[in-house]
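Quick illustration, no need to memorize.
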Amino acid sequence: MEFSTTGTKTVDEVEVWLSSVIEDSRKSNGIELFGLHHKEKSVFLGYCGLTLFPDLDGKTEIVIGYRLIRKHWGNGYACEAAFAVRDYAFTELKLQRLVALIEPTNIRSICVAKKIGMTYEKEVLLAEYDYPDHLYSMKNAAISA
């Protein structure tokens, strides 16, 4: 949560947020967040998934996002999860486009976006921010061809 505008959450806040995410995912047609767990160690790592932004700079966009617990940074988990979610979005959901909103100084997140095939598109100023995020995007090659 290094780049979160709202800071670190308490356990109670996370439980309330997670309940709302689970409820929203029931009616999302596959646009949802997924918990990340280490395969061998059964350890929770964070989450990765898709979020619908109905008005992102005047367009409806599906945003891929990933958040990992700090002690799990630098192990390739975000890339592994982002590749899986990207493939799910394009193969299963048949989405035409994915975007990522990234704090300009978040080098790790930018690297993940680039590794899964995204490129910088433009700056986007969200309502609750006083500085722009960078929008990275990619198109579904199977549909775009």
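The longest strand covers residues 44-56.
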